[in-house]
Amino acid sequence: MNFPRMANKAWPPNDPETLSEICLAYCVKNLRQTICDYDDEFDSYCLKPDIVLPLSVSDGISRMLPLQRPYLGIFKDPEQCLLKRMNLSLVSDLVDSDLIRLLAHRPVELRMPLAHLSYDFIHYINIYSDNLQSLAVLGSRPVFMELCHLLNEDITWYVREANRGGPETAGNRVFGRDYILSCPRLRSFTLNCVNQFSSDNLVTILCGLPSLTKLDLSDCDIKVEKIEDGLCSLKCLQILRLHNVLTVSNDIKSSFNVLAKLTTLR
User: Fold this and answer.
1) Tell me: the pLDDT tens digits for 172-219?
2) pLDDT above 90 (res 246)
3) What is the DSSP letter of 165?
4) Strand 214-216 with 85-87, pairing
5) Residue 86 in contact with residue 94, Cβ under 8 Å?
6) So where are the chain's domains?
7) What are the Cα distances from residue 160, in Å, to 128, 131, 180?
8) What is the pLDDT of residues 101-115, one digit of tens each?
């Protein structure tokens, strides 16, 4: 006799929400009534002055609450609400002053749009990059090219001063000649807005990130053979994403010859 098989997973998973998760979800849905004050004039929230949140709670809030302009005030003071993982991609009008305030948290992960930032954002990241392990810089190619043009003026000054025997900015390295980004713990780097006119800057950026294990250059308008020195300097690189990049290269064979030199790739 054949008996009908019982459907897989007939019972719901025995994984109920914890009390802390329920309480946190309630707070996020009722910010004004629980942990935040609201400013009608500026459409912004900030923590009540007597509230100090532990890291586990602030992490939970950042996961449940999309980081948009009205909620940035909640994280304005690291002493009240520490934020270690920042996805700022929804803050399309992010400016330098916002970035400086948020970088004071010394984040572990940072994802940010470029549209309204000045080229000084690189210096700000270098100052606060002690703990940074993952960085994603999102923008358009024209914006990035303009930022690189201004950055090159800065680089010229630093290199000239170093050649004159002036002070160097990071150990024995010179900004713009040996590095652009100085993030000693950075493991993952995403950059989607480089074009062929700013590929030299990309080489210098990569040469300054020797601990990188994951690199995503998808959608960049670059030739792989033009950034060979930067790629080959990444002795720990395991993952390299080049979606829509290889189609730009005139010589696919040259591109694959470069990739063949990256022996640490999985």
Assistant:
1) 688 888 889 999 899 999 999 888 777 888 999 999 998 999 999 998
2) no
3) T
4) unpaired
5) no
6) 30-82, 84-260
7) 25, 30, 15
8) 999 999 999 999 999
d(CA 15, CA 13): 6
Q: With contact defined as beta carbons under 8 Å apart, do 132 and 110 qualify?
A: yes
Q: CA-CA distances (angstroms) from residue 132 to 18, 96, 182, 188?
A: 30, 18, 10, 9
Token match 């930032």: residue? 117
Confidence of residue 3 (pLDDT cuts 50, 70, 90): low
Question: Which CATH number is 84-260's, of 3.40.50.10210, 3.80.10.10, 3.40.50.720, 3.90.226.10?
Answer: 3.80.10.10
Helix (H) or strand (E) holding 111: strand 109-113
The answer to whether the CB of 107 falls within 8 A of the CB of 131 is: yes
Eight-class DSSP state of 18? P
Band (141; pLDDT cuts 50, 70, 90): confident
Residue 93 C-alpha from the chain's centroid: 16
Percent of the chain at pLDDT > 90 equals 55
What pTM value is reported for the model?
0.86
Averaged pLDDT for residues 10-15: 66
CB atoms within 10 A of CB 182: 20
Instruction: Answer with the residue of higher pLDDT: 147 or 133.
Output: 133
> In this structure, are residues 215 and 186 in contact, taking their beta carbons and an 8 Å threshold?
no
Q: Which of 127, 226, 224 is nearest to 183 (CA)?
A: 127
**Rg over CA atoms, the chain:** 23
- Is-contact 42 69, C-beta < 8 A? no
